[in-house]
Amino acid sequence: xxxxxxxxxxxIKTRGQQVTLRCSPKSGHDTVSWYQQALGQGPQFxxxxxxxxxxxxxxFPDRFSGHQFPNYSSxxxxxxxxxxxxxxxxxxxxxxxxxxxxxxGSGTRLTVV
Amino acid sequence: GDSVTQxxxxxxxxxxxxxxxxxxxxxxxxxxxxxxxxxPGEGLQLLLKATKADDKGSNKGFEATYRKETTSFHLEKxxxxxxxxxxxxxxxxxxxxxxxLSFGAGTTVTVRA
Lengths: 113, 113
Prior knowledge:
Chain A is mainly β and 113 residues long.
């Protein structure tokens, strides 16, 4: 049973560019959340998707946007990249938005130069 | 808003030593509390959880008790191993419609043989 899978594992982008990160939830899960983990810090919640809609959003600018597809997979898009966007981006999935336990993927390491 | 404060690291221990990582929280009502572990180069793994006051979560020799009177959820292990070297995160989810995880900054634990 595959867990949460994220792609790519690493990427390097230039300041001002746009990036798309992808996530496939664990089998049987229908809710996806995205977190940003800066170096040496705890993860910060970006947003959660359920039924192809953004259900909850953290304190992130509109440059961060997302999408959920009918097969429950999700994308995180970041526009106009800043150096400060360099971080590990974690995707987590759960069955239903109210279930308290999330399963995390291994993350995508984004470096903005 | 909800927040978690955990003991700053790094923590360095010898094998078979006793480990305690302090965690306190600020939240309205009755949050659910979690400990996650992150091994080098990997995503987050749920270590244990507690969903109501006085609950004790336990897993792999680790324990934590949900103390509402002191708003704490300290992690303990009686005899650590080298394989316990990792970053440990305390986290909470709020009540009702607030389903995001709010994390502490993490505590790096290194166990030496």
